[in-house]
Fold this protein.
Amino acid sequence: GAVVSQHPSWVICKSGTSVKIECRSLDFQATTMFWYRQFPKQSLMLMATSNEGSKATYEQGVEKDKFLINHASLTLSTLTVTSAHPEDSSFYICSARDILAGSNEQFFGPGTRLTVL
Amino acid sequence: QKEVEQNSGPLSVPEGAIASLNCTYSDRGSQSFFWYRQYSGKSPELIMFIYSNGDKEDGRFTAQLNKASQYVSLLIRDSQPSDSATYLCAVRPGAGSYQLTFGKGTKLSVIP
């Protein structure tokens, strides 16, 4: 099956610093990747849709200048949390859709747990 | 506001019993429905999806969809302790969008 990786799997940073999270589709091409955030005991909330070669589409209430998304290739999307604050501590999960498979299935990465001190 | 509602649980069933998980959605135009399982600290993994009204079976799992009632359910037969997890219902809107809206999930505990 299709595999999506994320790096790092966890990160701890100081308040005010920036953190980059990578999402890679390992054995398929993904023109579209999705970034989700999940707080404890909450569901996944879609933050943005990342489109290869174009600007990301952000959900209402998500600051595009704070959560920078770059989708430079068909296998890599990055999410940069700029000037991170403790309230940004969360579980960040990406997913990708295999454009050649013709299915609706999204394949999820293992997630990145961000802790901002 | 598109919403997906699930009973948060916890739902406790004895080993070997049938676990029934329910989900309702607000967007009548929704076309695709997914059930994911999420273990604590892990990302979701797809169990199955359903597009058409009726039942769809895959091993011990059966998804049921009733678009008129805007209701989708997941039955787990012969529940095992390893089935203990949070089950997320996700809904995809109409054609052209692949975004998913997730419910908050139902926590299932299968008691040995």
Summary: The two ends of chain A are 37 Å apart (CA to CA). Residues 29 and 74 of chain A are 5 Å apart (CA to CA). Chain A has a mean pLDDT of 91. The interface with chain B takes residues 32, 34, 42-46, 49, 93, 97, 104-106, 108-111, 113 of chain A (CB under 8 Å).
